[in-house]
Specification:
- There is one protein chain.
- With 274 residues, the chain is of the alpha/beta class.
- It folds into 3 domains: 3-66, no CATH class; 69-100; 121-269, no CATH class.
- Helices cover 47% and strands 11% of the residues.
- The chain is built from 8 helices and 7 strands.
- It has helices spanning 3-13, 15-38, 42-66, 68-94, 103-107, 114-122, 185-197, 229-242, and strands at residues 130-132, 174-179, 201-203, 210-211, 220-223, 248-252, 264-269.
- Strand 5, helix 8 and strand 6 (248-252) form a beta-alpha-beta unit.
- The longest helix is centred in the N-terminal third of the chain and has 27 residues, at 68-94.
């Protein structure tokens, strides 16, 4: 009787034992080939760990598939986990509980801890973020208006109209204003009015914008399209002038994976540092 005929007979007599023997022979053969390729040592140990791990996973899956109760339990576990993930993603956007990280940090939760991500955003360490002060010299050429004409001297915002940089920005920027206590609505309303006097379109500015319970640690401008980076910088200069020259962060959210209007610029007002 040849080895093949023996295995065929064993499959008919005791199928589980035959499968176990054939699997063992396959593992031994694969190990021999691997040793000849990899030369032994640590590489072989790593391969053995992988083989054992895959074998364990295959064993568990075989048991689950053959056990109706385990299939039901595992199915409900997957449903519960998927529901929890969906709720956390929704809560990240609307902040019902206030305990989940913001959407950019939720999206990268497997890459870095949420606290590290949140601190990076708050400190302006995201993308092409930078600090702007009205007291600092202008770092770029003279801005131009939408039709390409010079609007003023470099570093001096024009009072009659916003400094809107020509080029790919196809629509005027729309400003949303948020503030966190102890900044008052009256203060926010005054700032919105001054920015509107400079020509900026501040949505809900007559109401002082939106009061939020949770915000960044530093006053900042957020933009969501690289086409509006210069607009954000000039808005930050105007805001800094209104805040007596205090630095304002310009925070790049264009690569954060958020869904937002490309011409949206957000102002986040926070209490001044002591």
């Amino acid at each position: 009787m040849t080895p093949i005929e023996f295995l065929q007979s064993l499959l008919k007599i005791n199928r589980p034992a035959a499968i176990l023997i054939m699997t063992g022979l396959g593992v031994v053969a694969a190990g021999a080939v691997a040793v000849s390729w990899m030369g032994g040592g640590q590489n072989v140990l790593t391969l053995a760990i992988y083989v054992l791990g895959l074998g364990l996973i295959a064993t568990v899956l075989t048991f689950v598939v053959s056990n109706p109760l385990m299939k039901t339990v595992l199915g409900w576990m997957f449903i519960a986990a998927f529901g929890a993930i969906l709720f956390c993603a929704f809560d990240s956007v609307v902040q019902i509980t206030g305990r989940t990280p913001s959407p950019p940090c939720w999206r990268t939760i497997l890459e870095e801890p949420p606290r590290v991500c949140e601190a990076r955003f708050e400190n302006g360490q995201q993308g092409n973020s930078f600090a702007v002060s009205s007291n600092a010299p202008d770092p770029s050429p003279t801005p131009t208006d939408p039709v390409g004409q010079v609007t003023g001297v470099a570093g001096t915002p024009v009072a009659e109209e916003p400094v809107i940089v020509g080029g790919p920005a196809s629509a005027p920027p729309l400003i949303h204003l948020q503030f966190t206590p102890p900044v008052t609505r009256a203060t926010s309303r005054d700032i919105a009015r001054d920015l509107a006097d400079n020509g900026w379109d501040v949505a809900g500015g007559d109401q002082g914008g939106e009061e939020v319970a949770r915000g960044p640690s530093k006053t900042q401008i957020r933009y969501y399209s690289a086409d509006y980076a210069e607009n954000a910088r000039w808005l930050a200069r105007d805001l800094s002038a209104r805040l007596d020259g205090a630095e304002v962060l310009v925070n790049d959210f264009s690569q954060a994976g958020l869904i937002a209007r490309p011409n949206l610029l957000e102002i986040w007002l926070t209490p001044p540092a002591p």
